[in-house]
């Protein structure tokens, strides 16, 4: 096998390995925050929002998670998690709010509070799922400031980036959802699909928020493919070299 070919193969493998390492570092960093993994982002659609609860407050176990709903939402339906009790907190509005269907409301759900039946170990993760109807606000990002209480201390994931600021530069960014353009057809059918998907989503995210598992699986498969490709290349080149007499 020519040295130049060997060098090219090893260089390509090294670059791929370096890229994989950077991707792993990025995933690890993202998983350190309370984040949202929405199954839909289309304006005016019904969506399941999975909140990934990461490490505790330093080395202290998590006891309660309070999710504040943005003003654009009037209600949210929490999914039952066997590890937590859940409560909806109602807020009286300063004045009646008119909804898109023409009705008016005087109260809204302002918070969803999950309280751990057993404090969540700081080395473990859990996921909390809310069903909501996203507002008709394509192009807007809505924020869900979340207070994480622990046996000792607390972390308030409530920082909202300024215009043009990278949210990853914040120490405790608020979980957020970027609303995209409305789908061509959405409504009661979407509600039925979301309801059917709740139990599956919850089961898949008991130890993670789902997106992390999919990201890691894809990354491992890609790296494995590179290794197998390199091995096949070496075998092919070796087969062409005549045996020594």
From TrEMBL:
<dbReference type="Pfam" id="PF07987">
    <property type="entry name" value="DUF1775"/>
</dbReference>
<dbReference type="InterPro" id="IPR006311">
    <property type="entry name" value="TAT_signal"/>
</dbReference>
<feature type="domain" description="YncI copper-binding">
    <location>
        <begin position="33"/>
        <end position="179"/>
    </location>
</feature>
<protein>
    <submittedName>
        <fullName>DUF1775 domain-containing protein</fullName>
    </submittedName>
</protein>
<feature type="transmembrane region" description="Helical">
    <location>
        <begin position="216"/>
        <end position="234"/>
    </location>
</feature>
<keyword id="KW-1133">Transmembrane helix</keyword>
<feature type="signal peptide">
    <location>
        <begin position="1"/>
        <end position="30"/>
    </location>
</feature>
<dbReference type="InterPro" id="IPR038507">
    <property type="entry name" value="YcnI-like_sf"/>
</dbReference>
<keyword id="KW-0812">Transmembrane</keyword>
<dbReference type="InterPro" id="IPR012533">
    <property type="entry name" value="YcnI-copper_dom"/>
</dbReference>
<keyword id="KW-0732">Signal</keyword>
<keyword id="KW-0472">Membrane</keyword>
């Amino acid at each position: 096998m020519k040295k130049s070919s060997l060098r090219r193969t090893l260089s390509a493998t090294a670059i791929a390995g370096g890229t994989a390492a950077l991707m792993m570092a990025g995933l690890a960093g993202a998983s350190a925050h309370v984040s949202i993994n929405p199954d839909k982002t289309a304006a005016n659609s019904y969506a399941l929002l999975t909140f990934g609860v990461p490490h505790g407050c330093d080395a202290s176990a998590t006891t309660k998670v309070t999710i504040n709903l943005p003003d654009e939402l009037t209600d949210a339906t929490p999914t039952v998690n066997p590890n937590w009790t859940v409560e909806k907190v109602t807020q009286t509005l300063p004045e009646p709010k008119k909804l898109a269907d023409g009705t008016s409301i005087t109260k809204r759900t302002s918070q969803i509070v999950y309280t751990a039946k057993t404090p969540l170990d700081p080395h473990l993760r859990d996921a909390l799922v809310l069903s909501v109807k996203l507002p008709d606000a394509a192009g807007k990002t809505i924020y869900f400031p979340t207070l994480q209480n622990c046996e000792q201390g607390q972390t308030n994931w409530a920082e909202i980036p300024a215009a043009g600021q990278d949210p990853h530069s914040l120490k405790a960014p608020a979980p957020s959802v970027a609303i995209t353009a409305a789908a061509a057809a959405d409504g009661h059918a979407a509600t039925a699909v979301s309801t059917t998907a709740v139990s599956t989503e919850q089961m898949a995210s008991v130890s993670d928020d789902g997106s992390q598992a999919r990201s890691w699986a894809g990354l491992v498969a890609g790296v494995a493919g590179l290794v197998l490709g390199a091995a096949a290349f070496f075998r092919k080149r070796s087969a062409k070299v005549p045996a020594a007499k």
